[in-house]
Amino acid sequence: MKDKIYDNLYAIVAMTEKTRAIGKDNDMLYHLPEDLKYYKETTMGETIVCGYNTWLSFPRRPLPKRTNIVLSRHQRDVDGAILMHSIEDVLNYAEKNPDKSVFICGGDNVYSQFMPFVSKLYITMIEEKEDVNADSFFPEVDENLWKLDKEFSPDVYEEKEGKPNIRFTVYIRR
Ligand SMILES: NC(=O)c1ccc[n+]([C@@H]2O[C@H](COP(=O)([O-])OP(=O)(O)OC[C@H]3O[C@@H](n4cnc5c(N)ncnc54)[C@H](OP(=O)(O)O)[C@@H]3O)[C@@H](O)[C@H]2O)c1
């Protein structure tokens, strides 16, 4: 395993601000148009990497106008995507494509495996007034290792009953 941080390797996630919840029953907890727009704009033209379960959860496969990489230990049919079998394969890809941004897109197990190697965290913080019922979580963001670099709200946000507020954050390594 290559023990280094990759300047072009990032994680991108939408999680609840208190419990770091990201999913339930292989689906997102919320489908927030403002976050989906941000996700699209941030990853457009770049490379996204996801575990096989997250791949299956995409409403549209592959996500258009991005290189889609799917991780699986099995021989899977991932039409329109590149199948890789180990995190080393992804690290090699990032190293060989320094002018591409490579976004780790989940799910929870995949985020955990890549945390030692990513140089930025694009985290959409979802307001959490009470604990949500979830079965997938983002790993802890250790404040000794990470510092907040940017924090901003969506330009336009449509208020709706029961819809949580969100803010976009970017963390960089200390
Ligand atoms: N809120 C967000 O931003 C966000 C983003 C993404 C996902 N999610 C949520 O996360 C949940 C899915 O997460 P999950 O942890 O269940 O699944 P996952 O990480 O998407 O997929 C797990 C699968 O990926 C493959 N895999 C993982 N590590 C690998 C490695 N080192 N080498 C090769 N293959 C590897 C394995 O596939 P095989 O079994 O085929 O070998 C494993 O079973 C869903 O609820 C989804 O909605 C949320």
End-to-end distance, in Å?
A: 22 Å
Quaternary structure type = single chain
User: pLDDT under 50 segments (min length 5)?
Assistant: none
Small-molecule binders here are:
NADP nicotinamide-adenine-dinucleotide phosphate
Assigned CATH architecture:
3-Layer(aba) Sandwich
Proportion of beta-strand residues: 25-35%
Structural class: alpha/beta
Using the coordinates shown, work out and report the CATH topology. Dihydrofolate Reductase, subunit A
Share of helical residues? 10-25%
Order of helices and strands: EEEHEHEEHEHEEEE
Number of helices: 4
Mean pLDDT: 96
**CATH homologous superfamily label:** Dihydrofolate Reductase, subunit A
Overall form: globular
Give me the Rg, rounded. 16 Å
Give a verbal description of the structure:
The model has no long low-confidence stretch (mean pLDDT 96). The chain has a single domain, classed as 3-Layer(aba) Sandwich (Dihydrofolate Reductase, subunit A). The two termini are 22 Å apart. The chain is an alpha/beta fold and 174 residues long. The protein is globular, with a radius of gyration of 16 Å. 20% of the residues lie in helices and 34% in strands. The strands form two sheets. Strands 6-5-4-7-1-8-11-10 form an eight-stranded mixed beta sheet. Strands 3-2-9 form a three-stranded antiparallel beta sheet, with no helix packed on it. The longest helix has 11 residues. The structure holds NADP nicotinamide-adenine-dinucleotide phosphate (NAP). The site of NADP nicotinamide-adenine-dinucleotide phosphate has 31 residues, from strand 1, strand 2, strand 3, strand 4 and helix 2.
